[in-house]
Here is the input.
Amino acid sequence: MENRHAASVAWNIGYDAGTGLGALMLGVAAHVATFSAGFTVLSALMALAGPAVLLTGRNEPLDPQGNRGARAPRTKRPSLGKR
Here is the structure.
């Protein structure tokens, strides 16, 4: 778990950026129309984005060269003691 700190930072940046972007989009939509229209439009966009991500997303990891289908090397798990 040597990359735990970097993963935590990346997660926090992504989460906060997404929250900020969503708030900005709602504010723009509310400014152009009304809050109810903004919520309606953004809800419709999210309803379309979910299936699009599921249909185009892949769960295959990448190797260091960026090729799909790479397998992570197996690591030995630490022993929890003798049984």
User: Anything to note?
Assistant: Helices lie at 4-32, 35-56. The CA atoms of residues 63 and 73 lie 11 Å apart. The first helix runs from residue 4 to 32. The chain is about 60% helix and 0% strand.
